[in-house]
Amino acid sequence: MLEVINNFLSGKLLIVLIVGLGSYFTLRSRFVQFRHFGHMFTVFKESLRGQGGQLSSFQALMLSLAGRVGAGNIAGVGIAVTLGGPGAVFWMWVTALVGMSSSFFECTLAQVYKRADGDGLYRGGPAYYIQHGLKLRWMAMIFSVLLLVTYGFAFNGLQSFTVTHSLENAFGFPVQYTGIGLAVLLGLVFVGGIKRIASVSDLLVPVKTLAYIGVTLYVICTQIELVPDMLVTIVKSAFGLEPAFAGLLGSAIVMGVKRGVFANEAGLGSAPNVAAVAAVKHPAAQGVVQAFSVFLDTFVICTCTALLILLSGFYTPGFEGDGIVLTQNSLAAVVGDWGRIFVSVALSLFVFTCILYNYYLGENALQFLLGKSRTALLTYRGLVLALICWGSMQNLSTVFAFADITMTCLAFVNLIALALLIKVGLRVMKDYDAQRSAGVGQPVFDARQFADLDLDRDAWPSAPASSATHEQAPASLVESHR
User: Fold this and answer.
1) Alpha helix segments (H runs only) across 191-267
2) If we measure between CA atoms, which residue out of 275, 388, 358, 343 comes closest to residue 66?
3) Number of domain units in the chain
4) Which family is annotated (predicted)?
5) Phi and psi (nearest 5°) for 122?
6) What is the predicted pLDDT for the residue at 476?
7) Distance (Å, rounded) from C-alpha 289 to C-alpha 161?
8) Cβ–Cβ < 8 Å for 395, 192
């Protein structure tokens, strides 16, 4: 029953919403992801600079990549190619292209409606822009509960199972001891709060990403003469024009879009929670940075995995097996048996940082629901660590199927909120574009120009005291945005 519900929600409804609304946001924004593509690299370079004791835009980017660049980039791509053929890669690209606009707006809005947490840091995300932008506290509460259950608990147990069993297969490490060791290391990071999580992600994410890209690029470069033909095969297979994969056209579209969505997370409502923690001069600048992270996740890392699999000679139409095994064996077919060990180690790093990301999403949801309760926070940490130990020894496939459903519901709530707040996002984007057109190198957000919005004066000091109050009706807000 869970599988039937999940196939309908994530295999049909979510695909239509993600691609449909992503395309709508792309058109309304006049193709923001294309207009700002070159600018993304400039903003990325500027993001390296922090502001005082605040987390920098770069650290927020590393946090989001900790979640985006995970097992989906290894196992997810393998599953997409196995079930959908090479054409699935093309539809992953399409999903990322429209998803870049969704990510731009959700992360921009997360910055607009972020709140200072009293400890010199910021909190934000869909729950905050639903409450302060739409004035729908009940909807924000639903989103937070779904976020806490999905990322804070279910996905962490699954990630623990994935990494401990991968290490057992590669090195023979007993899963129970690996699970305990993983929980201890994670606990040391958790107690340091968001700053320590950001610092660890700041270190590990570039290492894991560059190492993985480097090895896969080596495989690609050794067979560079085959790459043009393989790219042609990918495009032709996407439209059923390649005879060997003509029967996989429907599967290519479904698997490409589905795995693409879950790999880059654009529109799901997860990344805005970490995008909001950065200290930036203009909300749209963080939107640009996070759109860049979608590009890096799919067009760089997922494409590297796909080409590694398709060029290795190991993959053949009709291959049966899981995505991790396919990627491991594909690399081993080119570089030797150490390729399997490398994939296992890379997966361990991917999962470790992904759990940090998942944990923070749950913590952010918990604080929104209960406020700054130290008892609730310590209880949450203990439950997460216990679940990691337990999950390392249990196959949580049923829990994962349930989490897939709750994550789809999570995305549904977030996408509705994005559609309702698109006029606010467009206003902020136009302000950013106008300053850039006027020659301003780093646009600055003047909150006085957005006095009708419910902004936090501690987060945006220029916000006037007469900002919108919690009692204003959503209809009047929408009318004032026209």
Assistant:
1) 193-222, 227-238, 249-264
2) 358
3) 1
4) Belongs to the alanine or glycine:cation symporter (AGCS) (TC 2.A.25) family.
5) -120, 155
6) 38
7) 32
8) no
Angle at 320 between CA 159 and CA 9, to 5 degrees: 55
Residue 465 to residue 479: CA distance in whole angstroms: 21
Distances (CA, A) of 166 to 175, 351, 356: 9, 11, 19
Residue at token pair 């996989």 = 248
466 conformational bin, left if phi > 0, alpha if psi -120 to 50, beta if neither: alpha
Calpha distance 482→181 (Å, rounded) = 55
DSSP labels for 400-464? HHHHHHHHHHHHHHHHHHHHHTHHHHHHHHHHHHHHHHTT-SS----GGGGTTS---TTTSTT--
CB neighbourhood size of 345 (10 A): 17
How large is the average pLDDT for residues 27-37?
Answer: 93
How many Å apart are CA 171 and CA 204, to the nearest integer?
Answer: 22
Q: What is the CATH number of the domain that holds 139?
A: 1.20.1740
Q: Give the pair of three-digit tokens for residue 52.
A: 């005082």
Task: Write the DSSP string, 113-127.
Answer: T-EE-SSS-EE-SHH
Asked if 435 contacts 444 with a C-beta cutoff of 8 angstroms, the reply is yes
251 with 85: CB under 8 angstroms?
A: yes
Other Cβ atoms closer than 10 A to 466? 8
Domain assignment of residue 148, given as a range:
2-480
Q: What are phi and psi of 439, to 5 degrees?
A: 95, 10
- Residue in this structure with the two tokens 């361990």, named with its chain if needed: 348
Q: Rounded to two decimals, what is the model's pTM?
A: 0.87
For the stretch 256-292, pLDDT in tens is 887 787 777 888 899 999 999 888 899 999 999 999 9
Q: What residues contact 348, with CB distance under 8 A and at least 6 apart?
A: 163, 166, 167
Task: Report whether 446 contacts 462 (CB < 8 A).
Answer: yes
